[in-house]
Amino acid sequence: MWNNQNWMYNIDAYNQARAAQQEDTSNSPRYSEVTEFTEDHATSYGQAGSLSPELAALSLQPSPPSAANSSRTSRSRLGSLFGRTSGSREFRSSSETPNRLPGPSTSLDWEEQSLVGAARWPSMYNQSHTDENKDYCRSMYRSSREAGSRIASGQINSFSELWNCATEWRLGRLSYNAPGREAFATQREAGSVFNTKLDMQYASIIPMIISNSKSKRKRYGGPYLSGIECKVYKQKGKIHGQEIPLNELWAAIDQRQVAVKLQEVYNQDVDFEVLEDTLQRNHPNNIVHTDARYLSVIKGHLEQLFNQAKSPLRKREALDLIARIHWWAASAAPDMRGSAAKAEFAARALANAHGIEFPPFRDGIVPDIEAMLSSEKNFVERYSSFMERRPS
C-alpha cells in the first residue's frame, strides 16, 4: 500500500517555497468544485465500515516500482518538498527511456486554449466567458502540456507523481492566503463524509439523475425532509473482479414536494443555523461521494492503468486508457477540493504525452459529472463525443 505522502502535500512547506517566489494573486476557482467536507455522518446513507477481506487484499498489492525515484540525485527546491513528486526538472538520457512517447504535437488556437478545463454549466452558471476563467483555462492548457512532455521523457513515472503535478498547478492558481487553500492539497480521510448539495449550478444535474435508466426509486430518510420520493443512481466500478461502490446521486422526483416540506420546517421553531447546516449535508438532492476507505484500492488501480498508458500504444488504445483513468480519478475525488480539475489535468497530460491533442469539452459537458453518472464502459465509449471535436 502506498505511503500517503505520495498523494498529499506538505502545505506549510509548499507555502514557504511559494513565499520565496513571486506571489501569484490570481484566484480562479474551478466552478464545478464547491463540494463540502464534513466531519460527522448524520445522513441516512449508513456509517462507514471496514473493507471486505477481498478489497483489503487488493489495497495491499504493491504499487509498480519506479526506477526514477531511486536514480534521481537532484531535485528542484519546490519538487523536493513533496516526496515522490513531479517537481524535478532533470531530463533522462535516451538510454533510460527506450520506449519514449512522442510528446505534445499540434497546438490548440487561443480561443480553444481559453476553454480547456472550463466547467461549461448551463446558461446563468456558465463562467467560461469570463477573463478570469479564460486565464485559468490557458494555465491548465500550458501546464498539462508541460506535464505531457515530462511523461513522454520519463520524468513523470507514476500516477501519484502526475497527481502531485496537477496539485502543484492547482495550488499555483490560488493566492498565498486564499481561504481553504489547504483543502486543495489534502486527501480525504476514511470515516468522513464528502457530499455536494445539488443547488445553484448543480441543480442542472437533477434531471440527469431522474432520467437515468439505472436510477432506482427510493424514499429519502434523512432529517427534516424524510419521506420524499427520490431517484437514486448508485455508481459502481470493478477492480480485478471486485465490485467497488462509488458515488450515490440523489434527486427528488417532485421538487414542489421539497418546497412544501421546507416551508413546513421553516414554520417550526427551529434553530435556523442548525437547520441550514443540516440541510447542506443531508438533502434529497445530493451527491454522496465515494467513501474514502476505498481510495487506497482505487489509487493502486490508477497506478496500474497509468503504467499501461505511459507505454507506446495505438491511438485508440491510448484514448481508451486515458478515458478509464479520467473516469476512476473523477469518480474517486480523492482530495477535499480540486479533484475534478486534477483528473482532467491528468487526462490531458497523458494525451499530450501520446501526441494527442484534446480540444475543450462541449458546451454543457462537465466531465466529472458525466463520469459519476456513467459506468466505466459507457464513459469510455462516449469519451471522444464529449469534446467539441474528435481528438487529433
TrEMBL record:
Low complexity composition-biased segments: 58-86
Cross-referenced Pfam families: AvrB_AvrC
Key words, A-Z: Plasmid
Protein's UniProt keywords contain Cytoplasm: no
Biased composition annotated in UniProt, kind: Polar residues: 94-108
Membrane in keyword set: no
Classification via InterPro entries: Avirulence_B/C, Avirulence_B/C_sf, AvrB/C-like
Annotated stretches, region: Disordered: 58-108
Superkingdom in the source lineage: Bacteria
This protein's name: Avirulence protein
Annotated source species: Xanthomonas citri pv. vignicola
Lineage of origin: Bacteria, Pseudomonadati, Pseudomonadota, Gammaproteobacteria, Lysobacterales
